[in-house]
Design brief:
Helix content: 40-55%
Shape: elongated
Strand content: 15-25%
Low-confidence stretches: 426-431, 558-562
Mean pLDDT: 79
Strand order of the largest sheet: 8-7-6-11-10-9
Distance between the termini: 130 Å
Largest sheet: 6 strands, antiparallel
Number of helices: 15
Structural class: alpha+beta
Number of strands: 16
Length: about 550
Amino acid sequence: MRLDELLEELQARINAARGTRDRVHSLLEAVVSVGRELDLAQVLRRIVEAAAQLVDARYGALGVIGPDGRTLSQFLTTGLTQEEIARIGPLPAGHGLLGEIIHNPEPLRLRDLGAHEASYGFPPHHPPMRTFLGVPIRVRDQVFGNLYLTDKRGGQDFDAEDESVIATLSVAAGVAIDNARLYENSQRQQRWLQAGAEITNSLLSGSPRLKVLELIARRAKEITATRLADVSVPVAGTGDLVVELAIGADDDPRRGLVSPVDGTLSGAAYKTGSPVTTACLADDTRYHAGPRRFDGLGPSVAVPLGIGAEGTRGVLLLARAADEPVFTEEELDPLLAFAGQAALALELAERRHDTEQLALLEERDRIARDLHDLAIQRLFATGMTLQSAARLVGHKGAAERVERAVGDLDETIKIIRSTIFGLRARDEDAGPSLRAQVARAVGEAASALGYPPRLSMEGLLDTNVPVQVADHVMAALTEALSNAARHAHASRVEVTVQATAEEVVLTVADNGKGIPEGGRRSGLGNLQERARAVGGTFVVEAPETGGARLVWRAPLAVADGA
């Protein structure tokens, strides 16, 4: 009998040794499996799956502690289906029992988690859980997150050996996470450098400013893995920002939207001149001003583009989905450096544009001088010759034809002179030139629209249109372009200004959503009043191809007599 007892005890110890050996092998395999990955998301997934398997837990989770050190910014689970997760609702933020290990980063083992003083129950549709084991994960002496394991299979409790195994795995997990983060940072840094070189090459190749701006936003969106990237610029003379460029997540409705500086994430970065972050843009009550366009978006950052004597040139906004990780310091540092390089690139593009404009103006001056000194003088001399010859023509019909030819030459001289005035008009003396004022207003509208409108000008705008009518034309043009930027959501706007002998006609057409029934009409009412004030007309047309066409007319003869 004694021998049988000894044999049974020996067999039990052999089985325990085998179990320990198998568990050690499983632990080593888990450590190797976790350390094999370099992608951080895959590393975290492997850790929580390996932990649940090692202690035979039904459910497992890994909570990543956010930048504030008090809540969870990411929560990965195993043992739950996607349907169960959806029914439970929002993922835990780190309160209650889960927050106990955040505030006190030491292993915690419970026979009944519901009996703990920090526990306050489960949300609806959450599966019941009893036993609990929680262990912190440290990366370079800093707590990165926590492993949570519940419901050991077979109805057993987690024991000291389970705690020891998970504590050992957490050490290996910390090393694997550190390696994955270092690899991820090096890869990200390389992509930032490549993006910077690409932007520089684009500038040197002569790409336009808007194209370079789009490249900056697109590369930032790709590297930071965000859902959208918006570039907003200040609206001159106001406290607003306008979305000049929008990429991703239904970009068309956002382009051209105007929002105030106060009460918006982009506005906060614009005012402070430094990056501003939020964990959930859609629900952050600090940034709810302006049009609502961030539903479903979570972690976001706004970075200023260029800070100098002229202030911030613009703001780059990047936003991720609600369930994605928040922006870390490791991400913000290279992003800020990239934004500074992008701002320098934009400044270089603007300086190059100014140089090209100066060269263009100098060339226009030369053309204007040649037209004045050569073409007009010769046309005038030809007219004088024809006028003298008309006296010598005896045939009445021939004399009339000569007189008409002289009149045509006079009209041609007026057209050339108007062209010369337009060529010589500059921004600083554009006041009396309607042609120059129209060109400048259309150019400034590109910032609000996100693209330059098409412009066509015909007739003697600077010769035939009186000053008082020109003022109404400019006011009507500004109002029409402002309406298009705020309400039309168009991708193309065309402006035509035509002066005939009887009237001046302003047409602004777009391919947007048209004029809605029952919408606000204050802007259109202003256009109607201005047309009525000079004896003109104003109509709104709806082309078959979509959009809207605003036609504003003013008679020149009536205005002269007014």
